[in-house]
Design a protein that fits this description.
Thiol Ester Dehydrase, Chain A; disordered N terminus; UDP N-Acetylglucosamine Acyltransferase, domain 1; disordered C terminus; alpha/beta; nine-stranded parallel sheet
Length: 440
Amino acid sequence: MTHVTELPEGTRSAPVRQPAPPAAVGVQIPLAVDRLCFRYPSVLVDAVVEHVPGCRLVAIKNVTVNEEFFQGHFPGTPLMPGVLMIETLTQAAALLVLGGEPEFSPRRVWLRGVDHAKFRRQVVPGDQVRLEVEVRSRRPAAARVRGIAHVGDQVVAEAQLLLGITSRGAHIHPSACVHPGARIGDGCVIGPHAFVGEHVRLGEGTTVGASAVVDGWTEIGRGNKIFPFASVGLVPQDLKFHGELSGLSIGDHNTFREFVTVHRGTEGGGGRTSIGDGNLFMATAHVAHDCRIGSGTIFGNGATLGGHVSVEDNATISAYSGVHQFCRVGRHAFVGGFSVVTKDALPYGRTVGNRARLFGVNTIGLVRRGIEPEVISQLRRAYRYLLQSKLNTTQALAVIEEDPLLACAEVRYLVDFIRRSERGVTLRRAARRQDQPVDE
């Protein structure tokens, strides 16, 4: 990145490009102090001069003779205790770990362990200590940070720090509207102008973004991320819905991007929409009433489910595709972009087009999910019976069940999926003249 310096008027030379200054500092210490597990007079960081969120931070500590600890620590020869050098590095590391989160986040940091601590020289009044901290690894509840302290060009202290990360209660932005009856778990963050209804239950660590709406009898598990302007748990778009009690259940660690809409169930569909764990709903995706979604699925931008649709584990529905109501999308199925699915989409297969046709086994997706090559070969053989032989569906299923080379759980599941279909399955093979879809 470069900055352009403008020349005086009348000068025809091209603009002079100068190197960009260091990255902007994104941590304001007065705002961050309240989120640290340190209080006056124990705050030992005076300024932050460099900050790369989540990666690296450089801070300054000015050591003066007025520091309170000098009064009792070698009064005749004042020097900064080594334990306070570790504390200073820890505070800089805490600023780094918390620096990329909203100011109203409830997360807190404290020191859990110190490894490989070394003290190279004494720090005395008048020194300016430059604190450089860098994240080496991070998990939700802990982070390992490398810290080095310099005075001038000389290293004075270094250590590996293990930081614990925790949440204390929920943090709700002052402009958010949260009903007193809502149950908000520890570590939840509710952003500006968000709305959370009376009957909502939010699990620990769930984030509700700015201007998002969560309403109705909605139960949401732990660690979910609801991005700005998403709408979760509102009444269904069904003319048969007349305000009856219905709900929405969402598991753990799902992501709902901007403008995603998820509706609760209706009396005619069992009264509940359910979503499993670890699903990704990209921007503007829609989940209609009474849908059943498993775990590990991916919904592309604008992917849309009609009412009563079932999407099984690890399926992918690509951008701007629509699935007709009461259809099923099988396990590990891939639905290509801009497709219209009006029958059940076979598990392990690639279903693409308007109206959707089969393009064989979803080989790339299965490899990415860690399916064994032998199983993929068996699925290909089963698909050849279904798509390329001259047998009808009933005959092909019978042959597959009798073939000793196809004795695996995945093939049995495929056969059972077809037998249980109520709307029928997509078994129309793509014509040779059609372009093959791009693998994702």
